[in-house]
Amino acid sequence: MPLAPAGHRSWGFWLVTLAATANYAVMAATAPLLNRSVPELLGYDTAIAGSFVAIAGFAGMATMPALGYLAGRFGPPRVTIVAAALATIGIGIATIAFATPGIVASRIVYGLGNAGITVATTAWVSATSPAASRGRALGYYGMSVWLGLAIGPVLAENVYAAIGNGRTWAVLLAVQALTFILAVTVRGNPVRGEDSRAGQASTVTTVRRAVAVPAAVAIAAWGAQGVLTAFLVSHLEARSIPATGLQGGATILLVFASSVLLARIALASFTDRLGPTRATQTALGVVALGLAGLAVAPGFATACAAAIALGFGYAPLYPSLTVLATQSLAGPDRSTAIGWFSAATSAGMAVGAVAGGSLIVVVGSTATIALCAVAQIAVIPLLPPAKTRNAARS
Question: Do residues 133 and 223 both lie within one domain?
Fold first, then answer.
């Protein structure tokens, strides 16, 4: 009998989360693998390798809103299955045709599949989780991103060193196929009673209006994360914190990621207890505090404390903003909204990396990260008024 997800207490939920984790691990593995193998095997420079990496991100970001619509129209399980098949085919192309045309085709197909899995599994979790614990479920599901980001690069680097490029892609193909296998195994329908308005007419304008503020906040928050991902190590190095070593800048990024995972467990019910607006307001304040601490950190200990604060701030943001983007919508429209919101987080990361680099040239890294902190406070007034506790549960 198929396992049906029904909130975070069901086996189906955790299998969907495992499927997403496998997908994110492959996504995180392909970047360092291409950055290493393209110069070594094809003779291109790192700029070309980086361009190959970016193809998948741009292909996914451009199609996420449409993928959200398809998940609402045909159901998240079906879209997850098709997307997982596409992602597996994409990795398969790189496995058997590792040359420029093959890599380009691989990144486009994989980018579409990866984006579909991202949007559809999020919509799947949202649709099958009771409203009273939806924030907790989305928070646990969101751990798949961070676990994948932690596992992927380690997997790619070690397997590549041990057995070479072609076999490494074959290993990633097997991991990506796991997503497809799990998606086929797990089936589930939205919780009864949660989507009583599903038959009412809606418009694209209605969905965009619901997503507009959460998307704007996401661009500010994930934009700051994009700056940190690209430039934190060099920023800390300029402040006399070495890039490598146990007390180096790279360790600060590991502390940040670990604190997000820890906070997802410790603050599992944060969104459900406070409501999405209050949870987002609080989270943005803590994110701003963490960013300010990293901007002026005089040493490793201070930077480490700031990274922990930053992780505890980011942890509730994803579930809280996802609930804000979807709580006023009927079932199918929630999936469409998740597509738009996912595109906003991807856009934030991309814009942060590009704009952050330009700002650093002009005003320096300390001022740039400080401006990221200011941006978190600046978007708080955009949030809708917090509902009363009884209203939020209705």
Answer: no
Say if 135 falls within a structural domain: yes
Instruction: Identify the CA nearest to 63 among candidates 91, 78, 89, 83.
Output: 83
- How many structural domains is the chain composed of? 2
What's the token pair of residue 39?
């110069």
Q: Rounded to an integer, what distance in angstroms lies between the CA atom of residue 260 and that of residue 263?
A: 5
Burial class (CB in 10 A: 0-12, 13-18, 19+), 162: exposed
| Side chain identity at residue 359, one-letter code | L
91 neighbors 106 (Cβ within 8 angstroms): yes
CA dihedral 40, 43, 47, 53 (to 10 degrees): -60
- Pair 103, 91: CB distance under 8 Å: no
Q: Report the alpha-carbon distance of residue 384 to residue 216 in Å, rounded.
A: 13
The pair of structure tokens assigned to 168 is 């490494």
Domain assignment present for 366: yes
Whether this prediction's pTM lies above 0.70 is answered by yes
Domain of 96, in residue numbers? 11-185
Tokens of 226: 């994009």
Domain end (from 136, 157, 185): 185
What confidence tens digit (pLDDT) does each residue in 253-288 have?
888 888 998 998 888 889 989 999 999 999 999 999
In whole angstroms, give the CA distance from residue 86 to residue 177: 10
Instruction: Provide the b/e sequence for 286-323 (b: ≥16 CB within 10 Å).
Output: bbbbbbbbbbebeebeebbebbbbbbbbbbbbbbbbbb
Same domain as 164, residue 259: no
Q: Does residue 122 contact residue 342 with C-beta atoms inside 8 Å?
A: yes
Give the span between the Cα atoms of 177 and 182, in whole angstroms.
9
Number of Cβ within a 10 Å radius of residue 103: 23
281: tokens are 């307001």
For the range 1-6, what are the long-range contacts, defined as Cβ-Cβ under 8 Å and sequence gap of 24 or more? 2/185, 2/186, 2/187, 3/185, 3/186, 3/187, 4/128, 4/186, 4/187, 4/188, 4/189, 5/124, 5/125, 5/128, 5/129, 5/186, 5/188, 6/128, 6/129, 6/130, 6/188, 6/191
The per-residue pLDDT for range 97-136, each reduced to its tens digit, is: 999 999 999 999 999 999 999 999 999 888 888 888 888 8
Give the three-state DSSP class for 3. strand
